[in-house]
Here is the input.
Amino acid sequence: MSFLRNNKQSMLSLSVALGLTLLSGCGGSGESTGNTFTSPVNGNMGPTWVQDEFLSSSNFVAQCESPRSGSSPITNIAYPDKAGSELLEKHWQRAFNHETYLWYKEVIDKDPANYGLVEYFDQLKTMAVTASGTPKDQFHWMQPTSEVEEQTQLGVTYGYGISFDYQNNTAPRSWQVKNVTPDTQAFTLGVSRGSKLLEVDGIDFVNTTSQSDINTLNAAMFSRNEGETHTFKFIDINNEEYEVSLQTAAISGKPLQLAKTINTPQGKVGYLLLNSFNNATVEKDLFEQFTEFSAEQITDLVVDLRYNGGGFLAISSQLAYMVAGNASTKNKLYETIVYNDKTANQTIPFLDTTIDLRRLIGGDSIIQENQPLPTLDLPRVYVLTTGSSCSASESFMNALIGVGVEVIQIGETTCGKPYGFVSEDNCGSTYFTVQFKGENHLGFGDYADGLIPASLPEAGRQDQVQGCPIEEDYLNALGDEQELLLSSALYYLANNACPEVIPTVKQFASSSPENINSATNTPLTLESSSQSQPRLNIRTPLQDAILNDAYFDKFRDVNTKVGEQ
Here is the structure.
């Protein structure tokens, strides 16, 4: 999350732009901070390792086995590298992790001389597991800095505006359309929710196992160029095939994709389809929409976060305030950012005024700052979720629960990302290591297995949220009152109970039941040589959320300004 939000990298995304640049020089228990280390003339040498004794990471920073020269072609920032050794790089990993890692006390200190660079960093983490048996730390990895800069700093992504459910990524493949961004060529030409991809440029997308075909598919599906034309064949939910030719284009997305008021016997119900918190323009969109909702005197609200991977914590804080109002949030915290015991925690308020976030992060002003936000003062809110609901979306739910607003969760368990970090570059590798977690006003933030909808939450299970566990289908358009998750929320509103839902099968035609849409232990690794057949360059929702958080790293200095308002 960043506090402008998320680390996103500020991944407010739990990242809140916190002056975390100071963390790399912090001291702590067991550190020999009074000693200085002079790097040896012989680049193959390094300090002598003594278990549980640590020098400051500043003694080892940018002393590289293969130093870069010049500047980054993407950021234009000069490389600080100087000649060193792989051993010095590993000592930097060790010191940096000990200073900043949230669970540094759970890491067994081992001699870096006995490991390769990647292997050493891989084991610098807790080995604990969650209640479900999932590793507690799924967010620890390193990646070439050049790749990270391309993915997070260029500011523009090229594509078609189609979001897929990657149900199976090896033959027989099954990709189904979840959503199509409005005002894109795909939307205009009628690519429909629920359609399955059959062919790309004449290649059998479902069944091919040829590496050359896979290379062609990857080039078409994940092009980094604008204006390329590719042909796609789909089969829709009525088993009708259709073909479209689409050009790659700059896709900025539409965070607030849909908003409307639904008239029900119980009163007026507002509905928002909010796909991200990471576009600063959404502050103005939400301000205007809640002003309209307030004027219409809606009595209930459905917030559809099923595809919202997170973004600026400041925006999610504003949204929570507009839902709950002053009475529920006065003198209460939206979120506390909890670090290890070497760094003071940071608190994030419920923001009750406009902040003109776009201007704060270097763009044009789009809304007058310091305007009181409109509020609905609702005691209850319905939230639609899937495994793609991550980071700032989860903070929104957790924060409202923390101040006594009843959250009714309809859908699937969220991705489980209460953690954040600020990525750090050293010697051409960017390091991601958990540095903080977010907690609500009541001190709860332990939902690494996700926020789980439950018709009868178990006593003591704060990660279980009152609601209905329902897997979405793709049979109706988003926002349609017959769409499964929205219709289930409206049913619950009328009956205070979950509807009887007959499980549906998303796949049809030549689909496969295998599901690869889960987090892996190697986030952002797009190809795996260990697979028996070629795989496409997909990312899971959790990986997208992590990358999204990484994006906000360049805004960390801004987050503190927002926090002071």
